[in-house]
Design goal:
The chain is α/β, with parallel strands linked by helices. About 45% of the residues lie in helices and about 20% in strands. Strand 2 and strand 3 form a beta hairpin. It has a 5-stranded mixed beta sheet, sandwiched between helices. The chain is globular, with a radius of gyration of 19 Å. It has 7 helices and 5 strands. The mean pLDDT is about 90. The chain starts with a helix and ends with a helix.
């Protein structure tokens, strides 16, 4: 109550009244692109990492790649490939939302900065800040991976590519 009284005396409104723009509205207005890794385990207990990018205003998903060992160099090359394949769709993007994973090195960020995007890092251990990417991971798991036995990388690649094509063209959000 002391802080409330100090703020009231200074004429400062409470935090919820200071800004009318929510995080979700901010990301949509910035035409942001979010990226994240999803981990997928096979029947033989091999773990693969799926890198994907989501264009937030249109909910379009682009596959960055699938690997056993997501290094900084691999992730940077995936970012470069993204701009080679989808430069037209990314023309309106102003920001990249990503977590603070060790795979996202300075050259990865540099790939986006050279294209004019601002890097927005999510706070530590706060998946809600990258909710669009986290929700897509949940959708991928519920609709495909929980119902499919994955044997190897090639099969995983085929299944994910087919699902992304379905998601981008036949989903009600379109």
């Amino acid at each position: 109550s002391t802080i409330w009284q100090i703020l009231k005396t200074a004429g400062i409104d409470p935090a919820p009244g200071r800004s009318d723009v929510t995080w979700s509205q901010f990301l949509r207005s910035q035409a942001a692109v979010a990226c994240d890794f999803a981990t997928i385990d096979t029947v033989t207990l091999r773990r693969f990492y799926l890198l994907f990018f989501i264009h937030i205003p249109t909910r379009t998903i682009w596959l960055g790649g699938i690997t056993k060992h997501p290094t900084g160099a691999w992730t940077t090359q995936a970012a470069r490939n993204l701009f080679v394949r989808h430069s037209e769709q990314l023309a309106d993007a102003k920001a990249l939302v990503r977590d603070r994973g060790s795979q996202f090195i300075d050259t990865f960020d540099g790939s986006f900065r050279t294209e004019g995007l601002k890097i927005l890092k999510t706070p530590v251990r706060s998946p809600v800040a990258n909710a669009f990417a986290e929700r897509w991971i949940g959708t991928l798991r519920r609709e495909v991976l929980d119902r499919t036995i994955i044997w190897n990388r090639r099969e995983l690649q085929r299944i994910v590519v087919d699902y992304i094509e379905h998601f981008n063209s036949h989903r009600p959000h379109r």
